[in-house]
Amino acid sequence: MSSIVEHGSSVQQVSVHKQLTCITCPIGCRISVEMQNGEYVFSGNRCTKGADFARAEITSPMRSLTTTVRTVFPGMPVLPVRTKTEVPKNKIPSLIRELAKVVVTKKISIGEVIVPDILGTNCDIIATSDLEGDQGSGIGDQGKIVVCYRSVKFHDTLANNNSPIPDP
Ligand code: SF4
Q1: Of 86, 89, 100, 87, the residue nearest 166 (C-alpha)
Q2: pLDDT tens for residues 60-80?
Q3: What digits encode the pLDDT tens for the residues 38-55?
Q4: 23 CA to middle of ligand 1, Å?
């Protein structure tokens, strides 16, 4: 996509790169990003944070992920979790698929790491809620180790338990 932009008496052909909505603050400025003479040019942003946001969004967009993972505890069948830091936006679908394999089998506290360095992103997945002992698990209190991946450790860990295993 391209458009004509006037600069004084000259008319210059520029490539219109993208339009974005800044999510840095609730105002939500609509920012146009153009490439002119090899430089990004931003318009529509009310402050410099908008340009910073748009530049990052164009070059390497990052996001936080907030979601849930399953537990074996009937009283709390899902546990809210989030990424400890932002991760590349294009990794989010893979992270969601990976977290769908996770089942929490033991007590944990808010802020504890559920999955360290998930998929090599250098980002931990942490709990955003406590999972305490009165959730009716039948698993027992076996310490602080939290997560077993369903495909490997989960079945090993629960091999001698009759606790319900959630459907995938
Ligand atoms: S450009 Fe500035 S004022 Fe506009 S949404 Fe972004 S942070 Fe808010």
Answers
A1: 100
A2: 999 999 999 999 999 899 999
A3: 889 999 999 999 999 999
A4: 7
Tell which one of 21, 27, 48 to mutate to probe ligand 1, the residue whose CB is within 8 A of the most ligand atoms. 27
CA end-to-end span of the chain = 44
Query: Which pTM was predicted?
Result: 0.65
pLDDT score, position 6: 38
Nearest CA to ligand 1 atom 6: 50
- Find the 49 Cα to ligand 1 centroid distance in Å: 6
The pairing of strands 10-21 and 30-36 is antiparallel
Tokens matching residue 12: 């210059």
- Please count the other Cβ atoms lying within 10 Å of the Cβ belonging to residue 86: 14
At residue 132, the pLDDT reads 74
Q: Looking at residue 121, what DSSP letter applies?
A: S
